Amino acid sequence: MIGMPAYRRYLDKNARLPGVAGTVTLQFTVDSKGALSNFKVISGLGKAADNKAINLVKNGPGWLPSSAGITETVKLAIQFR
Fold it and tell me: Domain ranges in the chain?
């Protein structure tokens, strides 16, 4: 688990695919234990970039659970360069 500035650096470093530039916006849930699920592409760049974005989030640094101990919906924009 890392802070948002470090998480953004992780995404910036890893959100790369040859010939792909733009933003993939994901929506997913973070449960009371920090587990991620219910991934949905809100706006995408095609199957390869969309899947890469989901895998970056799923396999990346852990997420902190809500301080209220509830499941939350998160929207996250991932910039491909």
Answer: 4-80
How far, in Å, CA of 80 to CA of 66, rounded?
28
| CATH 1.10.10.10 is held by the domain 4-80 | no
Q: How far apart are CA 45 and CA 5, in angstroms?
A: 24
Joined together, the tokens standing for residue 52 give: 């890469």
Residues with Cβ < 8 Å from 11, sequence gap 6 or more? 56, 60, 78, 79
Residue whose C-alpha is closest to residue 79's, from 23, 21, 17: 23
Residue 4 has pLDDT above 90, yes or no: no
pTM over 0.85: yes
Q: Is the pLDDT of residue 54 over 80?
A: yes
Instruction: Identify the bridge partners of residue 77 per DSSP, sorted by sequence position.
Output: 25
